[in-house]
Amino acid sequence: MKRTVLMVVGGLMVLAGVVWTLQGLDVFGGTGGMNGQKIWAVIGPIVAVIGLVLALVGARQGRTPAPAPGPEPAESDRPAA
């Protein structure tokens, strides 16, 4: 459950960060409170990077690491063929 929440919240933060960046760079044009405001071109990428980190943490969480390989059994411990 926590894994899914982190991935969804992270994804939404990335999306919001991209939109805010484009609004700050006045790519969308039009009039609005955020369009053309350069501060959003700074805040947007920061939010997007934080969201990407959250999504990656969520994607990695819950995975069980592969067991470490053990030492080779001694010749005397191997079953006879």
Care to give the gist of this entry?
By secondary structure, this protein is an all-alpha fold.
| DSSP strand count | 0
Write down the overall geometry: rod-shaped
- Given as residue ranges, the uncertain stretches (5+ residues, pLDDT < 50) are none
> What letter string, H or E per element, gives the SSE order?
HH
The number of helical segments is 2
How would you sum up this structure, described in words?
The protein is mainly α and 81 residues long. It has one domain (2-59). 57% of the residues lie in helices and 0% in strands. The protein has two helices and no strands. It has helices at residues 2-24, 38-60. Helix 1 (2-24) packs antiparallel against helix 2. The model has no long low-confidence stretch (mean pLDDT 84).
Give the SSE map.
Elements: H1 2-24, H2 38-60
Helix pairs in contact: 1-2
Supply the key terms.
2 helices, 57% helix, mainly alpha, 81 residues
